[in-house]
Amino acid sequence: MEKQQQALEDKKHLNRFGYAQELLRDMGGFSNFAISFSIISILTGAVSLYGHGLTYGGPGMMGLGWTLVALFVLLIAASMAELASAIPTAGALYHWAAVLGNKRWGWYTAWINLIGQIGIVAGIDYSCALFADPLLAAAFGYTSTDSTILLVFGIILLLHGIFNHIGIRIVARLNDFSAWYHIAVVAILVVSLAFFTKNGLQPIDYLFQVGQTFSDKPYALAFLIGLLQAQWTFTGYDASAHTIEETVNPRVRAAWGIFSSVAFSFVFGFLMLAFVTLSIQDAAAAAGASNAFIHVISEALGGTFGTAVLWLVTLAMWFCGLSSITSFSRMMYAFSRDKGMPLSSHWAEISRKYRTPAKAIWLSVVLSFALALFDYLLKMVNPDTSYTTLAFLTAVSVVGLYVAYGVPIWLKLRSESKGVFLPKHRGPWNLGSWSKPINVISLIWIVFISVVMVIPPNQNALYALIGMFVLLLLMDYGYYKNHFQGPQAALNTTEQELKQREAEFEA
């Protein structure tokens, strides 16, 4: 009875913003946390870009760089959590921006977020392919190439599309399992390296050793470039907000999901990176390897055991990609039901059988594959390029996502200064008197890392982002003015219309 009462209360909060309860509200607090924790996935970002961090920042990147980024991201997560608590809709970032600013702010925020979402899904599943393909090549006797990696990447995306299409219940259960699985694999990795590293561990101060870089950049600049490793890892935690209409008591649970997913990822990620880095015997050889993480684990643990650990890590990446498709498709669904995208009626369509935004799920898959395919074709034209596909994909996602994170935070500060957003508008999860200083520091860090992530050698990410923004400006004049009424348009929905829409899905 208490659960039914909470569900009714959650539906009322959603109806206040003009939306019917169409998605199945079945996720608990742990499931909401698990989807963000799985997308952050310390076994994806920190692992797949381990070589990038080591090459530019040396071992000190793992001790100092990781901690520095995590502390600032915790402030950003807290800023976003209080917005999720105040405005609990699946549109999340874009809806917050539209409510606190206007529909134009909302429209641009949504598209910038979509750019970041394409990058993060592509980056996660490409990371999985980078690990899976060499392991499969060794098992089946073929040679791993860019083409075979792209093929494996496509198969991984296809599987994620199928699972997400089938239903939120199975994905939620897999996300729950994924959270525990990540913790278990980190524990296995830490214990294995602590007790079975062939030549013993380095002294603890090695983890904080600065001044060593294996790049051609001055160390201070190289260290900043290396921060991409940690910064990309801490992305995607807005998933807790995108699944807010599927979460029970979301004004509290989704807010905690955003913040706690970052906090737990910081702690477990630090432990993992510490032991991996302390097991390095030759940092230069690791940095020069085609996959630094595989090199370190193979050297430290060797043989069958090392390969088994790498397969465990690869499966964690697979779970991460599964969650990211869930988040991306929900954001696209929420934006499309407000007619924010061309052919919106399709992307806002809910499968009556599975209660999932099926067409939005498959569009997420197609767009993510297209971004990696674009980079693959560029490399065919210019095979001598020095940047990696993964650095390209991850930089696009970091800048796109964090700019989208920053816009509603800035608009909230502006609304507060104008006396529009008042204490009474806050949700039950809020920062109180600490809200303003935490919001300001968050914005400073977002501006800083958005510049750092696209400086050479990753300037191709800047070119891709500029191209996307130019396309966005063209769409502004070609689509926005004639079609997008904003989420405020939903407020015109009558109570009778809401009940009718909800009855259609409950039938």
Indicate the CATH topology. Answer: Amino acid/polyamine transporter I
Give the CA-based shape: globular
Mean pLDDT: 87
* Computed CA radius of gyration, to the nearest angstrom: 22 Å
Supply the number of helical segments.
Answer: 22
How would a crystallographer describe the biggest sheet? Answer: none
Full CATH superfamily name: Amino acid/polyamine transporter I
Order of helices and strands: HHHHHHHHHHHHHHHHHHHHHH
The percent range for strand residues is under 5%
Say what oligomer this is.
single chain
CATH class: Mainly Alpha
Share of helix among residues?
over 70%
Total beta strands: 0
Low-confidence stretches: none
Alpha-beta classification? mainly alpha
Transmembrane segments: 33-51, 63-87, 107-136, 148-167, 179-197, 218-234, 254-276, 308-329, 360-378, 390-413, 434-455, 461-480
InterPro entries: AA/rel_permease1 (IPR002293)
Pfam families: AA_permease_2
Membrane topology: Multi-pass membrane protein
Describe the structure concisely.
The protein is built from 22 helices and no strands. The chain is mainly α.
Notes on the protein architecture:
- The chain has 507 residues and is mostly helical.
- It has one domain (29-344, 352-480): Amino acid/polyamine transporter I (Up-down Bundle), CATH 1.20.1740.
- The protein is built from 22 helices and no strands.
- The protein has helices at residues 2-16, 29-40, 45-48, 50-57, 60-86, 93-100, 103-140, 146-166, 168-196, 219-226, 228-233, 239-242, 250-278, 283-288, 292-301, 303-336, 344-347, 358-381, 389-417, 435-452, 459-483, 495-506.
- Helix 15 runs antiparallel to helix 16 (303-336).
- The longest helix has 38 residues, at 103-140.
- It is globular.
